Amino acid sequence: MLGDRCERCREAGPPGGSHDRAARGHAVTRHASPTPRGAPGGTCPAIRLGRVRGSTTAVTTTSTPHRMPPGGVAVTAAAGVLTTLLVLSINAGRFVTAPLRTAGLLWPVYLGLLVLGVAALAGTGRWRRTPVWGLPAFWFVGLGWMPYAWRVAPDPEWASREVLLLSYCAVLSTAALLLGRRASLAWWRRGWVLSLVLAGAVAVWEMTTAQHLWVHPWPFQPRIAVATYGNPNNFGIVTLAMLVAVLAWRAESRSRAVRAGLGVAAVACAAFAILSESRSAVLGLVLVALLDVSRRLAAHPGLVRATVAAHRRVAATLAVLVGMLAVASFVVPALAARNPLVRMIHAALQPETAASDLFRVRVSLLGLRYWRESGFLGTGAGSFEPIMWNDPASGIEIEANLHNAFVELLMQYGVVVFAAFALLLLVLVRVWWTTRLAARLRPRVGIVRTELAGHLLVFAALGLTASSALTLTVWWLVLANACACGARLLDLRAPRDRRGPQEVSAPGVGGSAG
């Protein structure tokens, strides 16, 4: 362990005093100390902030007091509350939009939130991170292209509807990003957890009563849930965004009670994803779980081996019981009849499922053909369905959506808008990739990095699975959350880079990393 309390700390009195709490505001020169690691007394907080584990090199650190953004705590708290409510309201769907539309308050509320987001970040400098201004920049390019997309659209009614829905998505996703940026990721996570409570309550009601909110006539199995999302695929995949937020919150929490509650919430997310009987949701669930496990193993090398070695009998017993239960759920008729995984596997083996998957590929290829025929500038807003219906060579004889939001964006709005979109995604992937080394040394970086990867995974899954995710506000909300994670990652990385390679935070600081 490095050093003892610095001279100014000794003069100020015993450890834990006011000087200790404010120690980060003065410069400290520290040297190696023979005090063994783990010995009582520890180090001065000003020294501990920049401690290099195992180092015997003298290091000089100068830190500056934290500056509160303009407006102080009240504005930050208000922005956080609005972020949570915005995440919840978007997931609530028509529970919120229907009353606002009836009262004629939809646009005033949406634009008001955007103005508040801009005002919250004004003068803070927090907008300078590329993921923060990258999303509004993409929307600026997209909405600037709308006059052309509207002019070339084959059906003005479809074009008007899609432009309106995309405008909602642009305003709400940008407002959520700006407000959340003024606050913190914790407020995003609270919004997703509250959304889980709401969606879970609706889903349980659907599964127990075989009644549903807004989809009539009901085209799915009577007791399958869609909650507020209109489709089992959408519901199952959005629960993964909730799971990503729950796991990140749990990893950063130090409270056993909070961690226990969030553990229950994580199990609920997994259960709803499986009960949606969406293959994409189950595959996404496996990938999100692997992301979290890999983060844990990186933060605690040898954790699995040590745990199993310490509890061999318990681990062996649990493994046998889980294995027997898993086998029984597939082979015992009474259990297999209630196993959603059995129904999913059975459905996947049916010829209709293979035909459905092939149909998705066909319509995507059809969309790419229309894009090429447009001169790569786009076929116009809301144009895929009208063009397909009037194309005798399409080979599609039923009414269908494109089922691929990425191809839909490219086809309808062309290479210019799609290039801005792809650039934003590349920025987020680059942030994720370039922080991989920092994540091994700093658990909080690993937590946020895993959260970013999880939201990008959910964004991709929903875009490739939903019939038309392009106009789903929740799809763009997930992207905004990913941008917030990317900006936070850059924040966490920047201080270490400025201090130099000797400044490495001790594992476990600021979160449990568990």
UniProtKB/TrEMBL annotation:
Listed GO CC annotations: membrane
Recorded topology in the membrane: Multi-pass membrane protein
Domain O-antigen ligase-related: 265-422
Native organism taxonomy: Bacteria, Bacillati, Actinomycetota, Actinomycetes, Micrococcales
Annotated Basic and acidic residues bias: 1-11
One Pfam family recorded for the sequence: Wzy_C
InterPro entries linked: O-antigen_ligase-rel_domated, WaaL-like
UniProt-annotated location(s): Membrane
Source organism: Mobilicoccus pelagius NBRC 104925
Entry keyword set: Membrane, Transmembrane, Transmembrane helix
Protein name: O-antigen ligase-related domain-containing protein
